[in-house]
Amino acid sequence: MAGQGQRLTVVPTVTVMGMIKARLAAATRGHALLKKKSDALTVQFRAILKRIVAAKEAMGDAMRSASLSLAEALYVAGGPLRHVVQQSVSGPARLRVRAHHDNIAGVRLPRFEHFLVDDGARVPLLAGLAGGGQQVSASRAAHVRAVELLVELASLQTSFLTLDEAIKTTNRRVNALEHVVKPQLENTVAYIRGELDEQEREEFFRLKKIQAVKQRELERQVEAAKLYAVEKVAGEVALKRGVSFGAAASMLENGGGERDDDIIF
């Protein structure tokens, strides 16, 4: 039988056993659901991990291309592009980031996406202005691509960390249900079933003892009734023949097989 520390402290009754069985069934269903949730999160986690690896590789290529394009623009311009950049910047940034949430097995994963704001302003064409305008446009496009990859990588990294924490929490719950809650409930059910069986055996033994006592009492009553009948017959014989009660009883016990010479018939 399970020890006290491995089961719940309950009163072993049929009602309590029904409640514990219901809790065990709920724990089993919860364990199965959490296991499926953990598997789904793990699949998504691995998919995001693959996308992060690919995004980091693409990010390296994009940053290298952006740096090379900037160097080419500086080389073609023959100097710094400070005045060109200042002239092309007007108003707020057109490339912006917004956040969304994806629901994966009940876990809200943050997702960032970039978008361009079309405010109606004309994008200045740098080609032919102050020299190297075409290289500046190419450098701008390369840096925009790098920013887009940075946003995607940030989204994947955030989802990766969120999923990692959710998987750890789910696995802790799964392990707690599998190794703590369910064994306790199963041991409690086994304990209650054993106690109920013991009570049933005790009740059966008690009924057998009661039946044995009643049987002995019935036999005693039958024996007393026989003795009373014998005494009654002996008394009637004694009254009819004028002999003592003891002699009449002796005659009845002897069955009348011997003849007593002192009795006159």
Short description:
The chain is mainly α. The protein has helices at residues 14-77, 82-88, 133-241, 245-254; strands at residues 95-104, 107-116. 14% of the residues are buried.
Keywords, please?
about 10% strand; rod-shaped; about 70% helix; Helix Hairpins; single chain; 4 helices; mainly alpha; two-stranded antiparallel sheet
Major sheet strand order: 1-2
Taking pLDDT < 50 over at least 5 consecutive residues as the criterion, the unreliable ranges are 124-128
How many alpha or pi helices?
4
Shape: rod-shaped
How many structural domains? 1
What's the alpha carbon Rg, rounded to whole Å? 51 Å
* Class by SSE composition: mainly alpha
Which H/E pattern describes the elements? HHEEHH
CATH architecture: Orthogonal Bundle
- What's the end-to-end separation, in Å? 80 Å
What's the β-strand tally?
A: 2
Approximate helicity band: over 70%
Biggest pleated sheet = 2 strands, antiparallel
CATH class: Mainly Alpha
Q: Average the pLDDT over all residues and give the rounded result.
A: 78
Here the CATH topology equals Helix Hairpins
How large is the share of residues in beta strands?
A: 5-15%
Oligomer: single chain
